[in-house]
Amino acid sequence: SFIYDNEVLVANNMTPALLSIAANRWLSVRLEMLGNIFVVIAAVSATLNRGTMTPGLAGISITYALQVTSTLGWMIRAASNIETNMNNVERILQYISLEQEDEEVKEDSDPREGSWPSVGNVEFRDVVLKYRESQPAVLNQLSFTIEGGQKVGVCGRTGAGKSSLIMALFRMVELSSGQILLDGMNVRSLGLATLRKNITIISQDPALFSDTIRSNVDPFHEHSDSEIWEAIERVSLKELVSSLPLRLDTFVAEDGSNFSLGQRQLLCLSRALLRRSRIVVLDEATASLDFKTDEVVQLTIRQYFYDCTVICIAHRLQTILDSDHILVLDQGHLVEQGSPRSLLDDESSVFYGMARAQLAPQ
């Protein structure tokens, strides 16, 4: 597998080199033709003007004509190299102009490790988020409160602002205005590392590293093997891992390619179980999973994250119908919120319309 992948990558890398060599050969032939034309012109001129042109001048003109080919080639290649290398200058200028991220740790304002968040309250206050100042807001005056321990489903059509909500929560993009409070603390006052290590996210694309199963489930080596086995058992992977020759020391290929998509997602879920964060975010975590794996994920969340605040971003509404609270977004605005039952009982609600469109054919 490695040899095949290596050959494919080498072939892909050589493709532009082959085009560059072919273009150089094409250019050389035409420059030689052009140079020969100059030499012929110089020689004919010297012959026709042999009565008025001295031998020295005729020799110099032909000599310079012979150098036209190399001079033109050098000029064209130099111009091409300048254009190519300017891409590097443009990237450097782009990186210089990027807004610098906040500090990783703020000693003066960060809470003591393990003491925060203790409840898991999440509050958005008039949050406005823009990816660029010149662009319209993707979150517009967004306000809501999530009590600690609640399971909240967030839904909306494509472009409603669901993913932007996560970007704001993790401070991947800074707010244009408004506040996000976690247990009463403004996330803007926290160091980025402090904030992000206290929130667990399970995304649609499982994130696995080229390392052992043990290091993927416990990347900071903070837990014993018995705790790792317990987390793996809770996500119904114990039988699979136990059947592997090296068990926890089994190597995980890049992006987890030696495991199925469902198994990769369950490994990520076992990692979240070990972390035991008070706030857990599921970003379309089950969108690409089969029904059986989806059921395992939902059951694990209900059983082992019952005392955590769970924010579930979902496109498939059946995954959030058992939530305590539902937030419905549309173009960055919070258009509805309430319990699933109250929203489904209101036939005029947006959530009812979305549920009817998705669930009626079933």
Model description:
The protein has 362 residues and is an alpha/beta fold. It has helices spanning 2-48, 55-66, 68-97, 162-169, 192-197, 213-217, 225-234, 238-243, 261-275, 291-304, 340-345, 350-359, and strands at residues 122-129, 139-146, 151-155, 177-182, 185-186, 199-203, 279-283, 309-313, 325-330, 333-338. A 6-stranded mixed β-sheet has the order 6-7-8-3-9-10, sandwiched between helices. Strands 2-1-4-5 form a 4-stranded antiparallel β-sheet, covered by helices on one side. A hairpin with a 2-residue loop joins β4 and β5 (185-186).
Please sum up the structure shown.
This protein has 362 residues and is of the alpha/beta class.
Q: Count the E strands.
A: 10
Looking at the overall shape, the CATH architecture of the largest domain is 3-Layer(aba) Sandwich
Number of helices: 12
Q: What class would the helix/strand composition place it in?
A: alpha/beta
Shape: elongated
Helix content: 40-55%
How many separate domains?
Answer: 2
What low-confidence regions span 5 or more consecutive residues with pLDDT below 50?
A: none
Rg computed from alpha carbons, rounded to a whole number of angstroms: 32 Å
Write the CATH homologous superfamily of the largest domain. Answer: P-loop containing nucleotide triphosphate hydrolases
Report strand order across the widest sheet: 6-7-8-3-9-10
Mean residue pLDDT = 86
Which fold does the CATH topology of the largest domain refer to? Rossmann fold
Termini separation (Å)? 42 Å
Protein name: Probable ATP-dependent transporter ycf16
Subcellular location: Membrane
Main location: membrane
Pfam families: ABC_tran
